[in-house]
Amino acid sequence: MRAVDIPARTYRHDMSAAAYFDNGSTTAVANEVIEEMLPFFTAVYGNPASIHSMGDAAAKAISVARKRTASAMGCRPSEIIFTSGGTESDNLAVMGAVIRSGKKKVITSAVEHSAVLEACGRLREMGYDITVIPVDGEGYVDTDGISNAADGDTALVSVMAANNVIGTIQPIAELAKIAHENGALFHTDAVQAFTKTDIDVKRDGIDMMSVSGHKIHGPKGTGALYVRSGVELTPMILGGGQEHGLRSSTENVPGIAGIGKAAELVMLTMDDDVKRMAKMRDKIINEILSIKGSYLNGPVRNRLCSNAHFGFSGVKGNDIVLALSKMGVYASAASACSAGSTEPSHVMTAIGRSAQEALSSLRISLSRYTTEDEVNILLDALPKALRSVRK
Ligand code: PLP
Questions:
Q1: Cα(138)–Cα(327) distance, rounded to whole angstroms?
Q2: DSSP 40-69
Q3: What is the pLDDT of residues 330-365, one digit of tens each?
Q4: In what order do the strands lie in the sheet with 307-312?
Q5: Which residues have a catalytic role annotated?
Q6: How many helices (H) and strands (E) does the chain have?
């Protein structure tokens, strides 16, 4: 074994005084996950395809991680494809299923993550017929609209399980039923919902489900796609045939070990964590709504336990984020992929907010590690941040 000296933590941020409310963008990696990953950078660095013992040990680690991830997702290990993240899982599900199907139509919603919307955009360029269904003022997709748009030529209905910006939890079992009545497959992007809502791929009739490691206290650059046995996909990454031929490239063994451990760990205490997060979220919503000029975006009921999203009239969301950051409180104005953007979020305009309202947003997102102390720090800091920005 080669000893690896972990370099001085040059980039380590001193989080001691901070309150972290940007978990929708990414979460802290759990210590248990780091411990699980380390040997695969050091002692067990073999290629899982190699037939010697070190390769075999790496292959075994992948097999353990596949079992853990499958158990958390409620499916068989053979139905899990490890990917490089939620984006790749979404791309593979949408493009892989539609190209393979021989059918011409795809239905999705106006509030999907860009990983789904851009994949649909690429399919449109290739000649497929893409229908984007609107949502109501709370972000719920128009189920009748999906029913009316679907027919025998529909390859896929793709609607996210919970929205990354405003936290709306969609009725995915009902949507899967509509897809199946029309002979279409149903895919859900559960990157935000996985381990925070009650999803059961078998009970809910889901054919494909995307998840991401770094939203559940696993490492960045890791993801998984559940593909129901019998669903056929055209692979997007071609090569050596890893991951049942659906995702070539030498496996990211430490990352896969990490996402597997994270999925197992978070599921152990999910029920309690969800209740605790929901309680803190409600406290945050109640207190922040008492601030003059504030309003809530997204639903009151059936909202992701980890999401609170506000507008503040006459203030720019990015300015609030920067003012909070000076006090060691981390949040975001939009979702991670559009953080820092000066364009209004497509989710906000889809729920009927004006461009100006969309740019006045603040997303507060919690995790299982969020504490009451952090909530109090946030509630103390936010009025100060607003005052300094309004000046
Ligand atoms: N889908 C949703 C709903 C997300 O929130 C994100 C990330 O923010 C993604 C997909 C992309 O996941 P990843 O960063 O793992 O590629």
A1: 31
A2: GTTT----TT--SHHHHHHHHHHHHHHHHH
A3: 999 975 555 556 789 999 999 999 999 999 999 999
A4: 294-296, 307-312, 361-365
A5: 337
A6: 13, 12
